[in-house]
Amino acid sequence: MTMRVSGALLAAVAAGSALTACSSSTPSSAPGTSSFPTSVAVSVPPGAPARTAPGTALRFGDSAVLPADAFRPSGPTAMYTVTGITPGEGVPDSATQGGAAFFVYVTVTSLAAHSSAAPTVVGLAGSVDGRTPALTLPPPVALKACGNPSPPEQMKRGDSYATCLVAYADAGQKLTSVIYWAETTTSDGFDFKASPVVWGTPTPASSTAPASTTAAG
Question: Fewer CB near the last or first residue (10 Å), C or N of the chain?
Answer without folding.
Answer: C
